[in-house]
Structure to design on (495 residues):
């Protein structure tokens, strides 16, 4: 079976791609309107919603970027995932009920719709949509890079396939992704999340055992090897240090409330009373799936340091190298299929909210109505955004999947947490405060990213942007007159 490893992996991947095409065709028949394309008819049950939320959080960022970050920085990035349950609770407590109620009462199809209603401001709608588009490009780029990196490695290890470059690999990945997303919209994403979620949970547990078996001496042996090489790497803060690790924790706990691809799914649930069950299922499933992030990263670091495996050319190769060298071929095939499933699901969510911002929210903010033939333009915008993100990542100066993912996460968090997570719970919040918070956070994030500046002590730039935007939001709200809310929004905020 080892001799057929690459063929088995390729077959598993081919089966999954065929499934994606089938789901896209099926979902296209169910997608009759923009409400279906963007909101899945607002009819999702507990399991589907829970799987959609946790798989959107992990995605290629967790399957490829996560192990790469652990391999590179040791335990530092673990602070991104130990906060998972806290972050989920935070998001549900602060935004779930109110977003779902606003969605039902006003029949909204996007997060900027809800923001415009809360602040009675089309400027706020426009700026929220702009923040979403910028964050989508960064985060979607991470998904496309993750797909391209893994697919290239798989294809180049099959004897009868000629050498494939990263450009061609990216083109193939984008072609399947675009077909899947353009045809089925969000329906295609959320209904495959159930299978994807199960694959991710099972893969996380099985990979943990495979990682323990791969390292000489198991857990104790791996820890000893890494301690002898670099004690900081296996310490609680990793090589990034305490401030950097805690900035990860802060950004990923508080920032979870500002991830539109996640909180938008809270608007799609069938019943508000399902939230208690959804949060439990999502937290448990996410914890099991995240085992893959930690296990592969630490195992590969121990194997390389111990001289049992050649040094990796790139940290993002950690997941692929482990699965190809130390996992059973069938397990490797399943995990690779699960990886692409997670990426497809998350990318579908990003393309969906990005398309809504382009053809629904920005036109409403500028001309007072969305574009005509919204469903056609939604599919066209999906194609354009996917190609734009692919070009962005192809020429990005920083191609670490995890770092592209944290840039997108930080952009969303700093712009949307004050506006939505705080503003939807505090009647004193004003439209001016929301607008300044969004603009300041976007400006600072882009300055840090484009200049290549690294904040001292390893603190993530997104955490600085989030602190700045939140401070400005509170300050300006207190210095400006209290807004008069519409009767429906005032009632919803009292619930």
């Amino acid at each position: 079976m080892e001799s057929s490893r690459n063929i088995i992996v390729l077959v598993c991947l081919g089966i999954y791609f065929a499934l994606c095409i089938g789901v896209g065709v099926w979902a296209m028949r169910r997608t009759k309107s923009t409400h279906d394309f963007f909101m899945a008819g607002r009819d999702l049950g507990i399991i589907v919603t829970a799987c959609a939320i946790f798989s959107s959080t992990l995605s290629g960022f967790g399957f490829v970027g996560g192990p790469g970050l652990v391999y590179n920085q040791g335990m530092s990035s673990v602070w991104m995932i130990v906060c998972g349950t806290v972050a989920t609770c935070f998001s549900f407590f602060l935004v779930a009920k109110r977003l779902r109620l606003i969605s039902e009462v006003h029949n909204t199809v996007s997060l900027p719709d809800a923001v415009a209603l809360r602040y009675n401001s089309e400027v706020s709608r426009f700026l929220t949509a702009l923040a979403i588009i910028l964050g989508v490009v960064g985060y979607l780029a991470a998904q496309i890079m993750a797909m391209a990196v893994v697919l290239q490695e798989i294809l180049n290890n099959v004897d009868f396939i000629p050498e494939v470059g990263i450009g061609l690999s990216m083109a193939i990945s984008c072609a399947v992704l675009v077909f899947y997303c353009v045809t089925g919209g969000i329906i295609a994403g959320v209904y495959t999340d159930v299978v994807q979620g199960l694959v991710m949970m099972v893969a996380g547990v099985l990979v943990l055992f495979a990682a323990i078996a791969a390292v000489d001496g198991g857990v104790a042996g791996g820890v000893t090897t890494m301690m002898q090489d670099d004690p900081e790497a296996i310490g609680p803060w990793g090589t990034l240090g305490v401030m950097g690790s805690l900035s990860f924790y802060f950004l990923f706990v508080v920032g979870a409330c500002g991830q539109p691809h996640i909180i938008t799914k809270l608007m799609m649930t069938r019943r508000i009373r399902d939230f208690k069950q959804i949060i439990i299922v999502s937290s448990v499933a996410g914890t099991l799936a995240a085992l893959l992030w930690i296990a592969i990263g630490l195992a590969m670091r121990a194997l390389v340091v111990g001289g049992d495996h050649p040094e990796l050319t790139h940290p993002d190769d950690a997941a692929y190298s482990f699965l190809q060298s130390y996992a059973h071929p069938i397990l490797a095939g399943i995990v690779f299929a699960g990886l692409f499933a997670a990426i497809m699901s998350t990318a579908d969510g990003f393309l969906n909210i990005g398309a809504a911002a382009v053809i629904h929210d920005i036109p409403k903010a500028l001309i007072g109505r969305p574009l005509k033939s919204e469903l056609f333009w939604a599919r066209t915008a999906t194609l354009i955004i996917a190609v734009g993100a692919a070009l962005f990542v192809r020429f990005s100066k920083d191609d670490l999947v995890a770092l592209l993912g944290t840039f997108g996460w930080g952009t969303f968090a700093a712009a949307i947490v004050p506006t939505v997570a705080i503003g939807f719970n505090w009647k004193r919040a004003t439209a001016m405060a929301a607008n300044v918070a969004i603009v300041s956070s976007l400006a600072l994030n882009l300055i840090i990213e484009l200049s290549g500046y690294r904040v001292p002590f390893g603190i993530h730039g997104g955490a600085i942007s989030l602190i700045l935007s939140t401070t400005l939001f509170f300050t300006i709200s207190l210095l400006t007159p209290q807004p008069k809310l519409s009767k429906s929004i005032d009632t919803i905020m009292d619930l």
Q: What stands out?
A: The mean pLDDT is 82. The two ends are 59 Å apart (CA to CA). DSSP finds 21 helices and no strands in the chain. The chain has one domain: 2-395.
